[in-house]
Amino acid sequence: MAVAVVVVGLDQQRTPLGIxxxxxxxxxxxxxxxxxxxDRVPVSEVVxxxxxxxxxxxAVVDRFHEGVERMHEYLSDMAGASAAExxxxxxxxxxxxxxxxxxxxxxGLCSAVVGETEVLGQVRRAFDVAEAxxxxxxxxxxxxxxxxxxxxxxxSETAIARGTTSLAHVALSLAAEHFDDGLRSRRVxxxxxxxxxxxxxxxxxxxxxxxxxxxxxxxxxxARQLSDAVGGRAAGLGDLTAALxxxxxxxxxxxxxLPVLDTDHLGPHGLQRARGQRPDLVVVDLSMPRNVDPAxxxxxxxxxxxxxxxxxxxxxxxQGRRSELAAARAIVAHELERYRADDRARxxxxxxxALRARLDxxxxxxxxxxxxxxxxxxxxxxxxxxxxxADVLAxxxxxxxxxxxxxAGTPRGERLVEALRALFDL
Length: 426
Prior knowledge:
Blueprint: E1 4-11, H1 17-20, H2 30-40, E2 43-50, E3 54-61, H3 64-79, H4 83-87, E4 91-94, H5 96-106, H6 118-132, H7 138-157, H8 167-176, E5 187-191, H9 195-208, E6 212-217, H10 220-229, E7 233-236, H11 240-243, E8 249-252, H12 263-272, E9 281-285, E10 302-305, H13 307-317, H14 324-371, H15 379-407, H16 411-424
Parallel strand pairs: 5-6, 5-8, 6-7, 8-9, 9-10
Antiparallel strand pairs: 1-3, 1-4, 2-3
């Protein structure tokens, strides 16, 4: 039975946040997840892509239905939910649809912020981890490398990435809307100093110029690196409550699988701050899983926004780039055809290699057999004979090779393969 390329996953458009956050996989946990999948699912290759908006398993399976069912079960176990509950939100694609989907994801066309740049790095890192763990083979390696190329091409050849194209920018835009003067005179606390934390601090400094930026991180040294770059302050996670004492905005993005901010941290603020038409404290949780306890939403004087809220806000922010979607999708369609052609050529490669090897064996056998009969030739003349024979065989095999590569993956290609195998005993 032929192998199939499939993707089985959950994403923010189809899945409640409560389920999606339970299947999120940190980069540190990816090696174990890849090992677990290879133990539980009949896959020959597998890559796991997990971002704040999706967790997807890309795999090459020998038995399609069994493979999809096992991946479905695995995601259900991660979510702590029944297979029936998860199936309502599951996205399953195979063959060409997998390539189209991954190309669009890498290009930022499936992101909350259309054209956003972070996802391209996430796609690349997902593949890098799978390759390091020897989980990605030739099929997925080709697919993911092409996806990264497509993502770059879409951004360079269209205007899809102009303007607000990162979740960090959307988070700051949303927070700024809640104050008459934006963030210019506000005190902002950034919790987490990873890639997203760095993006938040950079965007704050370049676009909003707040009164003060405080970076809080589990590792104070890393927090200090970010805060020093913008003239801010740094604090360890143990000093979080003190850092929140008089802030206006809290932006949270850590790699923790549990909340780092809850009602114990923010409860006093809700009691002490005057309640007006707009909240006095804005909390934006950019993490997946969520790093802010949802119960914070019920505290007086505090406005909490999560990934769902950011997606809704981003939808309004990118209307000006919708016209670029058609151009971006045209690039995706063109690159799909190139990918399919390359894939067909790779499929024909083993038969072409076998044919060339058989003809080369025949060439060498016949030259050896006639060498004694042509003993009067000197070395230069014999080399010329060898060259002529090699040229004839190369021309002989060229057209069958081209025809086989062009037809690979089609019924005609299968007939050509069988004919070559029979004619040349391959």
